[in-house]
Specification:
The complex is a heterodimer of chains A (482) and B (96). Chain A is an alpha+beta fold and 482 residues long. Helix content of chain A is 39%, strand content 19%. Chain A contains 15 helices and 18 strands. In chain A, the strands form four sheets. In chain A, strands 1, 3, 7, 8, 9, 12, 13, 14, 15 and 16 form a ten-stranded mixed beta sheet that branches. With 96 residues, chain B is mainly alpha-helical. At the A-B interface, strand 2, helix 1, strand 11 and strand 18 of A face helix 1, strand 1, helix 3 and strand 2 of B.
């Protein structure tokens, strides 16, 4: 057993989620990402003296929605506090956050792992604001400051130290991203910084119940980096302990180009935030009526849908995963499943045809050219054997994409795809095929049963794909096995 | 609380200020005065009194989520001591 196997890694996360509001947390500046520098600003976000913050109602709504989805207790009364520190991208000299009493307490997120599900407990969720952006590498003598992001509303989700590996962190972040997207409280876009996390890592001997000294790795904005940072930090701490050293509590940065963590220089690390109540913002009081209204409007939970897709619709784990990744896709499936019981066909249609079309055309389901009604009719044509499966996908579907307004049945007729199950017609073709291939028939009769596929293919070709495969198969078997 | 050299240095660091020895001496006196004044309040028995944070009873002063009242880039940068055509400029914070 390797020395590393004697240890376990203990990880807790602080996830920052940027909320999908139109305006900022405490003033009406635009929150759209990617604007030219210092154009989404106002006297409030610039921290000018004499200005007063005023809370965006949506921030409360989004916080409560997320809390409800995680089973948190919603604080009927909560407060804001000031976290004081000096930094160039924090114009007021303090961040407005919730220290004394956050809006959501407790809760859990169930995540899917290779060897079963695991519930990760949430410590709390609090509301706060983002800082601006410091640009250190564009000017040789100065740091440039862009305050567009200053004041953008955030939720910070603090987990309990329940995670044990980079894989679990990955699953937790993936689950949380999916959840905030289902709830439509954030776009969860890690590249644009809408979701990033601080990772608290410690190690201990397996079986130990006390926690080891932890280090905090700041501001990881990609799952790949988070994974690498945790793996590096775990070995670093174990090596240190094994060589007789002690882990010091430190704040670390992860350097993607070296793959290593390193302490953040002391200058930024003066941890004395001198929290005190924010007197400019009155307490937030939430009514039970407000909570129950939001509760009623909650979308289905992604994990519940994932389970439902396997149990109710009998789909594979793989299909269920793909179909429930995005809420829109999952609801689209459920809509179609109300008109046809051929769930596997609907699943194939979405996964193999619709999704690739959407990613190629870079559009969303809302802009898909074929209506749900026509898609249902399309599935029905296959179900009722009016059009063969292969013809439906190869010929009819592309035609439907071009003529979204036309009914699939009309298009199928126009393309001459309506499958014939007329026995005389079929029998005639089968007889012709068998007559043309006497040697193959002989080989089949000697026991090479695999040739049935060859005959099927020939019948299909002769009928231009219109032969009903089931009936053809039956007829062939009957005639060959005399 | 004792205002000593160590505390002044810590405050200096937290406030990102560099004080001359004259200023340190002066601020140390000022801070002692302030503490003395606040210390006076401690003579009162506040055992059963809830801390007062909000001076009125207002709760939930909320805003509708809409975009307005933004400043132009030019106006935003107008009072900045140092700037380029888009950004605020400050002394270099990190040497990359």
């Amino acid at each position: 057993m390797s020395i590393y196997d004697q240890y376990e890694t203990v990880i807790g996360l602080e996830i920052h989620v940027q909320l999908a509001t139109k305006s900022k947390a405490f003033c009406s500046d635009d929150t759209t990402f990617g604007a030219s520098p210092n154009t989404h600003v106002s006297a409030i976000s610039l921290g000018h003296p004499g200005t007063l913050p005023r809370l965006n109602k949506k921030q409360i709504e989004y916080a409560v929605k997320l809390g409800l989805a995680l089973g948190s207790e919603i604080s009927l009364k909560s407060y804001f506090d000031r976290k004081n520190y000096f930094y160039t991208d924090l114009p007021k000299g303090y961040q407005i956050t919730q220290d004394r009493l956050p809006i959501c307490i407790g809760g859990e997120l169930e995540v899917r792992l290779k060897d079963g599900n695991k519930k990760i407990r949430i410590h709390h969720i609090h509301m706060e604001e983002d800082a601006g952006k410091s640009i250190h590498d564009q000017d040789p003598k100065n740091t440039l400051v862009d305050l567009n992001r200053a004041g953008v509303p955030l939720l910070e989700i603090v987990s309990e130290p329940d995670l044990r590996s980079a894989e679990e962190v990955d699953a937790f972040m993936t689950g949380m991203r999916q959840l905030v997207r289902y709830l439509e409280v954030s776009d969860g876009n890690m590249q644009e910084g809408s979701m990033r996390c601080d990772v608290n890592v410690s190690v201990r001997k397996k079986g130990d119940t006390t926690l080891g000294q932890r280090c905090e790795i700041k501001n990881l904005n990609s799952m790949r980096y988070a994974r690498k940072a945790i793996e590096f930090e775990t070995s670093r701490q174990i090596d240190l302990i094994e060589s007789g050293g002690k882990v010091a509590q430190e704040t670390l940065n992860f350097n993607p180009s070296t793959g290593k963590t390193a302490p953040i220089r002391d200058k930024e690390n003066a941890h004395d935030y001198r929290y005190f109540p924010e007197p400019d913002l009155p307490p937030v009081i939430i009514s039970k009526a407000f909570i129950s209204e939001l509760e009623k409007a909650q979308p289905p939970h992604p994990l519940a849908l994932f389970n439902q897709f396997q149990k109710k619709y009998k789909l594979s784990e793989y299909d269920a995963n793909l179909l429930t990744e995005e809420k829109l896709t999952a609801l689209f499936f459920i809509d179609l499943a109300q008109h046809s019981k051929n769930y596997k066909a609907i699943s194939n249609l979405i996964i193999n045809k619709i999704n690739p079309y959407l990613s190629e055309s870079n559009t969303g389901l809302n802009d898909f050219p074929i209506s749900k009604k026509h898609l249902s009719e399309f599935i029905q044509l296959i179900d009722e054997n009016k059009v063969s499966n292969s013809m439906a996908y190869q010929r009819l579907f592309p035609e439907m994409l071009k003529n979204g307004e036309k009914a699939p049945l009309d298009l199928a007729e126009k393309l001459n795809l309506i499958q014939s199950s007329d026995s005389d017609f079929l029998e005639q073709i089968v007889d012709e095929v068998l007559a043309k291939n006497p040697d193959k028939v002989a080989t089949y009769k000697k026991g090479k049963k695999g040739l049935i596929g060859f005959f099927m293919g020939e019948v299909m070709r002769a009928s231009k794909g219109k032969a009903d495969p089931k009936k053809t198969n039956g007829l062939l078997a009957k005639k060959l096995n005399v | 609380m004792q205002i000593d050299e160590k505390l002044i240095s810590r405050l200096e660091n937290l406030a990102r200020l560099k004080l001359s020895s004259e200023e340190r001496h002066k601020i140390s006196g000022d801070l002692n005065e302030i503490l003395k004044m606040v210390g006076k309040l401690e003579e009162l028995d506040t055992e059963d009194v809830e801390p007062l944070v909000y001076i009125n009873e207002e709760v939930n002063s909320l805003r509708i989520d809409e975009v307005k009242h933004q400043l132009s880039n030019e106006k935003a940068l107008k009072n900045a001591p140092d700037k380029d055509d888009q950004h605020f400029k400050v002394p270099k914070v990190i040497n990359l």
